[in-house]
User: Which sequence fits this backbone?
């Protein structure tokens, strides 16, 4: 799994459970907006077949989007749903040089840079990139 996991053959990076649990204890997520049956973090979730990009999001949303070329679509949707009233907490690669990063963080109420590198999907090898949690929350 690790070889495929850390290659361009996949853009899915499964959220480490303990990392998610800490955030969930703070935010009490109601919806995982881009999940699979195998990696869903909430009892209510959208799979690739559901296409979270065209669904109405609600409540407090967890978003760990695919990290490939589609990430900008997901971050744009997160901003749209935040503007519509949702709280959206996003786990994304810390790519401060990208347009999508700036468009997302422009609306952030918090930006949390992760110390060290996450070990996604139960891997023993850390990710080859830094991560951040971007919080879009109404006060």
Assistant:
């Amino acid at each position: 799994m690790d070889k495929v996991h850390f290659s361009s053959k996949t853009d899915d990076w499964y959220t480490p459970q303990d990392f998610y649990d800490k955030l969930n204890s703070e935010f009490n997520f109601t919806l995982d907006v881009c999940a699979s049956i195998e990696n869903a973090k909430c009892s209510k979730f959208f799979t690739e077949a559901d296409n979270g990009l065209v669904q109405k999001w609600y409540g407090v949303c967890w978003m760990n989007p695919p990290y490939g070329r589609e990430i900008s679509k997901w971050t744009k949707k997160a901003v749209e749903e935040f503007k519509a009233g949702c709280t959206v907490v996003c786990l994304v690669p810390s790519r401060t040089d990208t347009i999508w990063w700036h468009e997302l963080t422009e609306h952030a109420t918090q930006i949390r840079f992760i110390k060290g590198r996450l070990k996604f999907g139960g891997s023993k090898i850390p990710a080859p990139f830094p991560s951040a949690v971007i919080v879009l929350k109404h006060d």
Confidence is low (pLDDT under 50) at residues 1-10. The chain has one domain: 2-136. The chain has four helices and five strands. The CA atoms of residues 14 and 121 lie 4 Å apart.
